[in-house]
Amino acid sequence: xxxxxxxxxxxxxxxxxxxxxxxxxxxPKASDTWDPNIVVFxxxxxxxAGADTAGVSRIQHQPHFRMIRVMCSGRIQPGFVxxxxxxxxxxxxxxxxxxxxxxYIFGNERAVEQFEKTxxxxxxxxxxxxxxxxEWISAAEGVRFAKVINEFTDQVRALGPSRLRPKRQTG
Amino acid sequence: xxxLAEAALxxxxxxxxxCGKCTATxxxxxxxxxxxxxxxxxxxxxGHGDDLVKxxxxxxxxxxxxxxxxxxxxxxxxALVQKLRELSYREGVEPECPxxxxxxxxxxxxxxxxxQQDRLRWLSDDLxxxxxxxxxxxxxxxxxxxxxxxxxFEIRTLEGTRAxxxxxxQLGVEPVVSPDERCCGHDLLWxxxxxxxxxxxxxxxxxxxxxxxKLLVVSCAECLRTWNIDYEPFFESPxxxxxxxxxxxxERMPELKLKENDGQKVTFQDPCRLGxxxxxxxxxxxxxKELPGxxxxxxxxxxxxxxxxxxxxxxxxxxxxxxxxxxxxxxxxETGAEVLVTACPKCQVHFRCAMKDPKxxxxxxxxxxxxAELVSDALA
Lengths: 171, 380
Ligand code: FES
Hints:
The complex is a heterodimer. By secondary structure, chain A is α/β, with parallel strands linked by helices.
C-alpha cells in the first residue's frame, strides 16, 4: 500500500489512528505536541467491558493510555497507582462499576477508601491532584468511557509531563 | 561473587565460629520461623552467594540487631544483611512489601524529586519554625506520610512531631523545619536500593548544611541511625551535631516548666535503631523519670534485650512479625502500664496494626504515645 496523501482524511479512521501524531519529545513547553502517558486501571466486569463497548462501537477517543485490567476496583491499592507514577505515568485513572453494581458487592466501596489514601499521599508528594481520577463506568457506557478518557487526557495534557518522571538513565 | 568476600571481610563475618548464638537469639526462629542468620553467615564465608542472594530470604531479617549484640565474635550480621541486600536488589530480588510497595514508591519518587512536597500542613500557628536557616534543624521524618497512609490504624505519629517542635519552642529554639526535607532513605538502603539512597542522602545533607544549622534534632529513630551512621561517607563539610529529641530534652529537662500530674504508669519500647544500633537507652528513660507523676515500669525484656516491633523497612511483615508484635504487646500489658511510650513513629504504626487483630485485639490494646508527646502534655 502506498502511504495516503494528505488530500483527504478518510471518513472512518480506526480509533487508534485518529489522534496519532509524530512522536514528540516530552518537554513542558511543547505541551501541544506532547502526548501524555496515562495508566488506566479498570475492573474486569464493568469498566474494562465499557472500554470494549467503546471499541466495538467504534467510538473515537484519544489513545494515549495503557489499560490494566484487575478483577475488581477494590484490588487497586495505593501501591499500584504510586508505582505507576514512580515509573513515569503522567496520569492515572482508576475505574470500576457503579455503586451497587460491583461484581463483588462492596469492592468499589473499598476502592474509594484506597483511592482517598492514595490521593492524600499524592498531595503530600506535590503532584497535581488532577493527575489522579476515580470514575465509575458500566459495561454499557462506551460513550461515557470515551468521554472520560478524552476529558482526562486533555486534563493531563494541559498539566504537562509529570515532574516526578524518572530522568532517562543510561545503563 | 567478589563482593561477597568483601562484605564478609568488612562485617567481620569471617570471624564466625559457628556457635549459633545468632540463630538462638533471633526473634524469628524463637517464634517459630524458619530463619537462620548462622546459615547466612556461613554461606557468605563459603562464597555460596548465588542462592543466598537470590532466594530472597535475606529480606526476612528484622535488622533488629539482637544477634550483633550476642555474637561472641563480633560478627556484624545486620551490616552483612545490609550489604547483601544490595546484591539481591541488583539481581532483581525485591522484598515483598505488605503495602504493595506503596511506601517504597513514595521514597523513590522523593529521590527523583522535581516536585514541591506539601509536607508542612501540620504546622499549626502556635508553632514557631523557620523554613530555611537557623541554628537548630528539626528533622521531622515522614510522619505526615504515615498518618495519611494509615488512617485505618488511627495512628497519630504527627502528634509526636508537633510535640517535638512545641518543646523546642518552649526551650527558646525556633527550629528550621524545611518543606524540602525528603525521606532519609533508610528503608531504601535497607532494601538494597543504594542508588536512590545516595540521591536522598546528598539532597538531605545539602539541605541541612545550607541551613547553617549547628545542631540537628531528630525524632525518628531510623532517621537518626541513617544520619549518624549511613550518611557519614557523604558529608563534605563537618556534620552538625546530631541528637535524638530525647537526648536533647534530657540535657535541657530542668529548663522546662512542668505541671503536677496525678499519676500515670507508662512503659517504654526501645526502638532497635535507637537502642541496639546507636546505644541510646538512658536519655528517653531519664526524660520520662523527670516528668512529675509519671511512673516508668519496664517490660520483661527492655533496654539492650528489648523486642523489636518487627517491621523495620516495610519489608518483612508476615505471620512471624505479627506474632512478635502480639507477644510484645502482651508484655506491655503485663506491666500494668496505661501507655506504651516509644521513640520511633514506625513502632507505633506496627503495634497499632497488630492491635487491629479482630480476635486478640482486646487483649493487647494499649495506648501509644511518643516520648515528646508525653513531655509536651506535662508542660505547665
Ligand atoms: S467488580 Fe467492578 S468494581 Fe468491583
